[in-house]
UniProtKB/TrEMBL annotation:
<dbReference type="GO" id="GO:0050462">
    <property type="term" value="F:N-acetylneuraminate synthase activity"/>
</dbReference>
<dbReference type="InterPro" id="IPR013132">
    <property type="entry name" value="PseI/NeuA/B-like_N"/>
</dbReference>
<dbReference type="InterPro" id="IPR013785">
    <property type="entry name" value="Aldolase_TIM"/>
</dbReference>
<keyword id="KW-0808">Transferase</keyword>
<dbReference type="InterPro" id="IPR020007">
    <property type="entry name" value="NeuB/NeuA"/>
</dbReference>
<feature type="domain" description="AFP-like">
    <location>
        <begin position="279"/>
        <end position="334"/>
    </location>
</feature>
<dbReference type="InterPro" id="IPR006190">
    <property type="entry name" value="SAF_AFP_Neu5Ac"/>
</dbReference>
<dbReference type="InterPro" id="IPR013974">
    <property type="entry name" value="SAF"/>
</dbReference>
<dbReference type="InterPro" id="IPR057736">
    <property type="entry name" value="SAF_PseI/NeuA/NeuB"/>
</dbReference>
<dbReference type="InterPro" id="IPR036732">
    <property type="entry name" value="AFP_Neu5c_C_sf"/>
</dbReference>
<dbReference type="Pfam" id="PF08666">
    <property type="entry name" value="SAF"/>
</dbReference>
<dbReference type="Pfam" id="PF03102">
    <property type="entry name" value="NeuB"/>
</dbReference>
<protein>
    <submittedName>
        <fullName>N-acetylneuraminate synthase</fullName>
        <ecNumber>2.5.1.56</ecNumber>
    </submittedName>
</protein>
<dbReference type="InterPro" id="IPR051690">
    <property type="entry name" value="PseI-like"/>
</dbReference>
Length: 334
Protein backbone atom coordinates (compact mmCIF):
# COMPACT_ATOMS: atom_id res chain seq x y z
CA UNK A 1 0.00 0.00 0.00
CA UNK A 2 1.35 3.39 -1.00
CA UNK A 3 1.90 6.11 1.60
CA UNK A 4 -1.02 8.56 1.60
CA UNK A 5 0.52 12.04 1.34
CA UNK A 6 -1.41 14.98 2.78
CA UNK A 7 -0.39 18.52 1.86
CA UNK A 8 -1.24 20.61 4.94
CA UNK A 9 -2.33 24.01 3.69
CA UNK A 10 -3.66 24.84 7.15
CA UNK A 11 -4.03 28.59 7.42
CA UNK A 12 -1.29 29.41 4.91
CA UNK A 13 -3.95 30.95 2.65
CA UNK A 14 -3.90 33.91 5.10
CA UNK A 15 -7.68 34.23 4.83
CA UNK A 16 -7.61 34.59 1.02
CA UNK A 17 -9.64 32.06 -1.02
CA UNK A 18 -7.58 32.74 -4.15
CA UNK A 19 -4.37 31.94 -2.26
CA UNK A 20 -6.08 28.79 -0.97
CA UNK A 21 -6.84 27.71 -4.55
CA UNK A 22 -3.20 28.25 -5.49
CA UNK A 23 -2.22 25.93 -2.63
CA UNK A 24 -4.60 23.32 -4.05
CA UNK A 25 -2.90 23.69 -7.44
CA UNK A 26 0.50 23.35 -5.80
CA UNK A 27 -0.46 20.22 -3.87
CA UNK A 28 -1.86 18.57 -6.98
CA UNK A 29 1.11 19.51 -9.16
CA UNK A 30 3.54 18.16 -6.55
CA UNK A 31 1.82 14.77 -6.40
CA UNK A 32 0.04 14.88 -3.02
CA UNK A 33 -2.98 12.62 -2.54
CA UNK A 34 -4.92 15.15 -0.47
CA UNK A 35 -4.83 18.74 0.73
CA UNK A 36 -5.92 19.71 4.22
CA UNK A 37 -7.23 23.01 5.51
CA UNK A 38 -8.49 24.13 8.93
CA UNK A 39 -12.15 25.07 9.28
CA UNK A 40 -12.87 27.24 12.30
CA UNK A 41 -14.48 30.27 13.83
CA UNK A 42 -11.77 32.04 15.79
CA UNK A 43 -13.98 32.77 18.80
CA UNK A 44 -15.01 29.11 19.01
CA UNK A 45 -11.49 27.90 19.74
CA UNK A 46 -9.56 30.84 21.20
CA UNK A 47 -10.25 33.10 24.18
CA UNK A 48 -9.85 36.87 24.17
CA UNK A 49 -6.82 36.89 26.46
CA UNK A 50 -4.91 33.94 24.93
CA UNK A 51 -1.32 34.81 24.03
CA UNK A 52 0.29 33.44 20.91
CA UNK A 53 2.07 30.11 21.21
CA UNK A 54 5.85 30.45 21.35
CA UNK A 55 6.36 29.21 17.80
CA UNK A 56 3.74 31.72 16.62
CA UNK A 57 5.68 34.51 18.35
CA UNK A 58 8.88 33.28 16.70
CA UNK A 59 7.36 33.05 13.22
CA UNK A 60 5.10 36.12 13.30
CA UNK A 61 6.53 39.19 15.02
CA UNK A 62 3.31 41.22 15.13
CA UNK A 63 2.14 42.22 18.63
CA UNK A 64 -1.44 41.01 18.28
CA UNK A 65 -3.12 38.41 20.52
CA UNK A 66 -3.64 34.83 19.40
CA UNK A 67 -7.33 35.57 18.78
CA UNK A 68 -6.51 38.61 16.64
CA UNK A 69 -4.00 36.62 14.64
CA UNK A 70 -6.35 33.66 14.11
CA UNK A 71 -9.22 35.96 13.15
CA UNK A 72 -7.17 37.25 10.20
CA UNK A 73 -6.57 33.65 9.06
CA UNK A 74 -10.23 32.67 9.12
CA UNK A 75 -12.10 31.70 5.97
CA UNK A 76 -15.91 31.91 5.88
CA UNK A 77 -17.48 28.45 6.00
CA UNK A 78 -19.00 28.84 2.53
CA UNK A 79 -15.49 29.19 1.09
CA UNK A 80 -14.76 25.59 2.05
CA UNK A 81 -17.60 24.44 -0.20
CA UNK A 82 -15.89 26.34 -3.01
CA UNK A 83 -12.55 24.73 -2.11
CA UNK A 84 -14.10 21.26 -1.90
CA UNK A 85 -15.57 21.66 -5.40
CA UNK A 86 -12.27 23.05 -6.66
CA UNK A 87 -10.41 20.02 -5.25
CA UNK A 88 -12.94 17.63 -6.80
CA UNK A 89 -12.39 19.23 -10.20
CA UNK A 90 -8.61 19.06 -9.76
CA UNK A 91 -8.70 15.40 -8.73
CA UNK A 92 -7.24 15.82 -5.24
CA UNK A 93 -8.95 14.85 -1.98
CA UNK A 94 -10.22 17.72 0.19
CA UNK A 95 -9.77 17.43 3.98
CA UNK A 96 -10.17 19.98 6.73
CA UNK A 97 -9.68 19.96 10.50
CA UNK A 98 -12.66 21.20 12.52
CA UNK A 99 -11.92 23.37 15.55
CA UNK A 100 -15.39 23.17 17.10
CA UNK A 101 -18.90 21.83 16.76
CA UNK A 102 -19.99 24.40 14.19
CA UNK A 103 -17.08 23.63 11.90
CA UNK A 104 -17.54 19.88 12.43
CA UNK A 105 -21.20 20.06 11.42
CA UNK A 106 -20.33 22.10 8.35
CA UNK A 107 -17.62 19.68 7.20
CA UNK A 108 -20.06 16.78 7.57
CA UNK A 109 -22.36 18.58 5.12
CA UNK A 110 -19.45 18.60 2.67
CA UNK A 111 -19.15 14.82 3.11
CA UNK A 112 -15.43 14.85 3.87
CA UNK A 113 -13.96 11.33 3.66
CA UNK A 114 -12.67 11.40 7.23
CA UNK A 115 -12.21 13.76 10.17
CA UNK A 116 -8.70 14.95 10.98
CA UNK A 117 -8.46 15.88 14.66
CA UNK A 118 -5.74 18.32 15.69
CA UNK A 119 -3.30 17.61 18.51
CA UNK A 120 -4.81 20.36 20.66
CA UNK A 121 -8.02 18.32 21.01
CA UNK A 122 -6.46 15.19 22.52
CA UNK A 123 -7.91 16.02 25.98
CA UNK A 124 -11.12 17.65 24.70
CA UNK A 125 -13.33 14.71 25.69
CA UNK A 126 -16.72 16.12 24.72
CA UNK A 127 -15.44 17.11 21.28
CA UNK A 128 -13.84 13.70 20.72
CA UNK A 129 -17.14 12.00 21.56
CA UNK A 130 -18.99 14.28 19.14
CA UNK A 131 -16.48 13.37 16.43
CA UNK A 132 -16.79 9.67 17.26
CA UNK A 133 -20.58 9.94 16.96
CA UNK A 134 -20.24 11.04 13.33
CA UNK A 135 -19.14 7.46 12.52
CA UNK A 136 -16.65 8.94 10.08
CA UNK A 137 -13.11 7.53 9.93
CA UNK A 138 -10.80 9.57 12.15
CA UNK A 139 -7.15 10.57 12.04
CA UNK A 140 -6.08 11.75 15.49
CA UNK A 141 -2.91 13.83 15.82
CA UNK A 142 -0.95 13.19 19.01
CA UNK A 143 1.39 16.17 19.44
CA UNK A 144 2.16 17.19 23.04
CA UNK A 145 0.55 14.00 24.39
CA UNK A 146 1.58 11.01 26.47
CA UNK A 147 0.71 7.41 25.70
CA UNK A 148 -1.79 7.50 28.56
CA UNK A 149 -3.55 10.56 27.14
CA UNK A 150 -3.77 8.89 23.74
CA UNK A 151 -5.25 5.78 25.34
CA UNK A 152 -7.87 7.91 27.11
CA UNK A 153 -8.72 9.73 23.88
CA UNK A 154 -9.16 6.44 22.04
CA UNK A 155 -11.38 5.06 24.80
CA UNK A 156 -13.61 8.14 24.54
CA UNK A 157 -13.92 7.77 20.78
CA UNK A 158 -14.42 3.99 20.99
CA UNK A 159 -17.23 4.54 23.53
CA UNK A 160 -19.31 5.86 20.63
CA UNK A 161 -18.91 2.57 18.76
CA UNK A 162 -16.56 4.19 16.27
CA UNK A 163 -13.28 2.24 16.18
CA UNK A 164 -12.15 3.44 12.75
CA UNK A 165 -9.28 5.52 14.11
CA UNK A 166 -5.75 6.15 12.90
CA UNK A 167 -3.05 7.86 14.93
CA UNK A 168 -0.70 10.51 13.60
CA UNK A 169 2.60 10.93 15.41
CA UNK A 170 3.34 14.62 15.71
CA UNK A 171 5.70 17.01 17.46
CA UNK A 172 3.89 20.31 17.95
CA UNK A 173 6.81 22.61 17.26
CA UNK A 174 7.24 24.59 14.03
CA UNK A 175 9.80 23.78 12.80
CA UNK A 176 10.63 20.61 14.76
CA UNK A 177 14.24 19.88 15.63
CA UNK A 178 15.57 16.53 14.42
CA UNK A 179 16.34 15.55 18.01
CA UNK A 180 12.67 16.02 18.94
CA UNK A 181 11.04 13.92 16.20
CA UNK A 182 11.25 10.55 18.01
CA UNK A 183 9.86 8.46 15.15
CA UNK A 184 10.05 5.27 17.19
CA UNK A 185 7.08 6.62 19.17
CA UNK A 186 5.03 6.11 16.01
CA UNK A 187 5.92 2.42 16.12
CA UNK A 188 5.16 2.32 19.85
CA UNK A 189 1.64 3.65 19.21
CA UNK A 190 0.99 1.09 16.48
CA UNK A 191 2.08 -1.76 18.74
CA UNK A 192 0.27 -0.43 21.82
CA UNK A 193 -3.08 0.35 20.23
CA UNK A 194 -3.12 -1.94 17.17
CA UNK A 195 -4.12 0.89 14.84
CA UNK A 196 -2.64 2.31 11.62
CA UNK A 197 -0.16 5.12 12.20
CA UNK A 198 1.38 7.99 10.28
CA UNK A 199 3.44 11.13 10.71
CA UNK A 200 2.68 14.83 10.79
CA UNK A 201 6.12 16.11 9.83
CA UNK A 202 7.11 19.60 10.97
CA UNK A 203 10.83 19.30 10.25
CA UNK A 204 12.48 21.32 7.49
CA UNK A 205 14.11 18.42 5.65
CA UNK A 206 13.32 15.13 3.95
CA UNK A 207 14.83 12.68 6.45
CA UNK A 208 11.78 12.28 8.69
CA UNK A 209 9.54 11.36 5.75
CA UNK A 210 12.06 8.83 4.43
CA UNK A 211 12.50 7.25 7.86
CA UNK A 212 8.74 7.20 8.50
CA UNK A 213 8.20 5.43 5.18
CA UNK A 214 10.72 2.74 6.12
CA UNK A 215 8.90 2.35 9.46
CA UNK A 216 5.64 1.67 7.57
CA UNK A 217 3.84 4.96 8.10
CA UNK A 218 0.55 4.69 6.22
CA UNK A 219 0.17 8.46 5.79
CA UNK A 220 2.42 11.51 6.02
CA UNK A 221 1.32 15.11 6.39
CA UNK A 222 3.48 18.12 5.53
CA UNK A 223 2.80 21.87 5.71
CA UNK A 224 3.04 23.66 2.37
CA UNK A 225 3.35 27.32 1.40
CA UNK A 226 3.76 29.27 -1.80
CA UNK A 227 6.57 31.25 -0.20
CA UNK A 228 8.24 31.00 3.21
CA UNK A 229 8.57 34.79 3.36
CA UNK A 230 4.82 35.41 3.48
CA UNK A 231 3.70 36.85 6.82
CA UNK A 232 1.94 34.31 9.04
CA UNK A 233 2.56 31.80 11.85
CA UNK A 234 3.18 28.66 9.75
CA UNK A 235 4.90 29.75 6.54
CA UNK A 236 8.46 29.51 7.85
CA UNK A 237 7.96 25.87 8.88
CA UNK A 238 6.29 24.95 5.57
CA UNK A 239 7.65 23.73 2.24
CA UNK A 240 7.50 25.84 -0.92
CA UNK A 241 6.58 24.16 -4.23
CA UNK A 242 9.92 22.83 -5.50
CA UNK A 243 10.91 21.46 -2.10
CA UNK A 244 7.52 19.81 -1.61
CA UNK A 245 7.72 18.17 -5.02
CA UNK A 246 11.11 16.74 -4.02
CA UNK A 247 9.60 15.70 -0.68
CA UNK A 248 6.89 13.68 -2.42
CA UNK A 249 9.48 12.16 -4.76
CA UNK A 250 11.64 11.13 -1.79
CA UNK A 251 8.69 9.26 -0.27
CA UNK A 252 7.80 7.55 -3.55
CA UNK A 253 11.42 6.59 -4.23
CA UNK A 254 11.74 5.20 -0.70
CA UNK A 255 8.69 3.03 -1.35
CA UNK A 256 10.33 1.73 -4.52
CA UNK A 257 13.55 1.05 -2.59
CA UNK A 258 11.65 -0.96 0.02
CA UNK A 259 9.98 -3.13 -2.62
CA UNK A 260 7.65 -6.02 -1.79
CA UNK A 261 10.04 -8.02 0.38
CA UNK A 262 10.22 -11.05 -1.93
CA UNK A 263 13.84 -12.03 -2.58
CA UNK A 264 14.26 -12.80 -6.27
CA UNK A 265 16.47 -11.66 -9.16
CA UNK A 266 15.32 -8.54 -10.96
CA UNK A 267 14.82 -8.46 -14.71
CA UNK A 268 18.13 -6.58 -15.09
CA UNK A 269 19.90 -9.13 -12.89
CA UNK A 270 18.57 -11.93 -15.08
CA UNK A 271 20.15 -10.23 -18.08
CA UNK A 272 23.64 -10.12 -16.52
CA UNK A 273 23.36 -13.41 -14.60
CA UNK A 274 24.97 -15.50 -17.36
CA UNK A 275 27.83 -13.02 -17.67
CA UNK A 276 28.88 -13.01 -14.02
CA UNK A 277 27.90 -16.40 -12.60
CA UNK A 278 30.06 -19.49 -13.10
CA UNK A 279 29.68 -22.72 -15.06
CA UNK A 280 31.59 -26.01 -15.06
CA UNK A 281 34.55 -25.86 -17.45
CA UNK A 282 37.33 -28.27 -18.34
CA UNK A 283 40.37 -27.50 -16.18
CA UNK A 284 42.68 -28.85 -18.94
CA UNK A 285 42.47 -30.38 -22.40
CA UNK A 286 40.45 -33.61 -22.22
CA UNK A 287 40.14 -36.41 -24.77
CA UNK A 288 37.00 -38.19 -25.87
CA UNK A 289 36.42 -41.27 -23.70
CA UNK A 290 37.98 -39.73 -20.59
CA UNK A 291 36.27 -40.67 -17.33
CA UNK A 292 35.72 -37.35 -15.58
CA UNK A 293 37.39 -36.79 -12.23
CA UNK A 294 36.92 -33.84 -9.90
CA UNK A 295 40.34 -32.31 -10.67
CA UNK A 296 39.37 -32.14 -14.36
CA UNK A 297 36.69 -29.57 -13.55
CA UNK A 298 36.94 -25.87 -12.82
CA UNK A 299 34.31 -23.17 -12.24
CA UNK A 300 34.52 -19.98 -14.26
CA UNK A 301 32.45 -17.47 -16.16
CA UNK A 302 30.27 -17.37 -18.25
CA UNK A 303 27.31 -18.80 -16.39
CA UNK A 304 25.11 -20.30 -19.12
CA UNK A 305 26.55 -23.82 -18.76
CA UNK A 306 26.02 -26.47 -16.08
CA UNK A 307 25.88 -24.95 -12.60
CA UNK A 308 28.82 -25.74 -10.26
CA UNK A 309 26.42 -27.24 -7.72
CA UNK A 310 25.73 -30.09 -10.20
CA UNK A 311 29.40 -31.13 -10.61
CA UNK A 312 28.76 -34.37 -8.70
CA UNK A 313 26.63 -35.61 -11.62
CA UNK A 314 29.54 -35.26 -14.06
CA UNK A 315 32.12 -37.09 -11.95
CA UNK A 316 32.54 -40.69 -13.16
CA UNK A 317 30.86 -40.00 -16.52
CA UNK A 318 32.55 -40.58 -19.89
CA UNK A 319 33.25 -37.71 -22.29
CA UNK A 320 31.70 -38.06 -25.76
CA UNK A 321 34.03 -35.53 -27.41
CA UNK A 322 37.35 -33.75 -27.00
CA UNK A 323 37.33 -30.65 -24.80
CA UNK A 324 39.79 -27.78 -24.68
CA UNK A 325 40.93 -26.15 -21.46
CA UNK A 326 38.29 -23.59 -20.25
CA UNK A 327 35.66 -25.01 -22.60
CA UNK A 328 32.16 -25.24 -21.12
CA UNK A 329 30.98 -28.78 -20.46
CA UNK A 330 27.42 -29.39 -21.65
CA UNK A 331 25.04 -32.21 -20.80
CA UNK A 332 25.29 -33.66 -24.30
CA UNK A 333 29.10 -33.97 -23.85
CA UNK A 334 28.70 -36.90 -21.42
Amino acid sequence: MSVFIIAEAGVNHNGDINLAKKLVDMAKDCGADAIKFQTFKAEESTGTFAEKAQYQKNNDKTKESQLEMIKKLELPFENFKILKDYCDNKGIIFISTPDGLDSLKYLLKLNVPFIKVGSSEITNIDFLIEIGNTKKPIILSTGMSTLGEIEQALQNIYSTGNTNVRLMHCTSDYPTLIDDVNLKAMVTMREAFKVPVGLSDHTLGFEAAIAATTLKAEFIEKHITLNRNITGPDHKASMPPQEFKEYVNHIRNTEKLLGDGIKRPTNNEKIIMNDVRRSILASKDLKKGTIIEKNMLTYKRPGYGIKPELAYILIGRELKRDLLKDEIICWNDI
